[in-house]
Target: NAD(P)(+)--arginine ADP-ribosyltransferase
Amino acid sequence: MAWLSMDLLPLTLALLAITAATTAATAVPPGDTAGPLVVTLDMAPDAFDDRYRGCGRAMAAALPGLNRSEFRQNGHLAEGWALAAAEWRVRMSPRSPRSPLSPAQAIALLAYTAPVPLHREFNAAVRTAGKSRREYREQFHFKALHFLLTDALATLRDARGPRCHRAYRGVRGVRFEARRGDTVRFGHFASASLRNESSWSFGTDAAFHVLTCQGVNIREFSFFPHEEEVLIPPFETFEVTDVTNVTQAGDKARIQLRSSGTVSNYNCEWLREQRCGDGPCVFDAGRSIPGDLPNLGGLLLATAALAVATGIL
Model:
């Protein structure tokens, strides 16, 4: 823990204690030997896949209110955000290279990769929040995080220039079925690695070899930079180019995917509902820029206060 400044140590230790308790309470019993869940890869029609085209600045303006509301509704979100904000503050010394991301965007990526249950809970919600507009409005309590992750990936792609990555994704507890030639999406934010051996730590029940052109290397914004993580957004589509059984029993498969484009069924949905109801909406304000987003100090203090108020600390 030598890397933590002393003023952040109590907050971080408290959060780590909560994480340990949560993990212990939800761990699978040692005797549970149930086989992996079988899932068919498809276009994930129920996923929430907003790209926020043309409304980034307006969404950035809505963030403070959304964050306050969603922290109260979701303890894991407040927990992960506070831990990530503390980590970002430690990393940002006066001599650090200038980041292309705003503090809020960087903290969102760190929160996603933090060693807490947030990313699993978040992705489970993303996979179903697109069932209907009502589902998104009333049941999806990660609106701010979804926007910040989407916007952060787009900002990094713009800063570095468009490029494709050959990445590897391992999955534990799920066995995927796919047919060669199908077009599919992950339907959530999918973590992969530039290093094949790093992907094994995530599981070997399914292995993906992915050529992604929307995924972005988030190494500098990860709690685990050695994993060389590439984060793939839910709207990227892929062609299934090969499916290979890697065991004689056929219970493990290696699936090869090649980027084939993007599909988004939603755009600026939160603002559309606020501004236009069921009528048509036009957004042309552009994507957010780092100066548009809330500052780090305010977000960290607000998170800590909300954590105390909601009983997390």
User: Anything to note?
Assistant: The beta strands are 37-40, 165-171, 174-177, 183-184, 190-193, 206-212, 216-217, 229-232, 236-245, 253-262. The chain has one domain: 37-276.
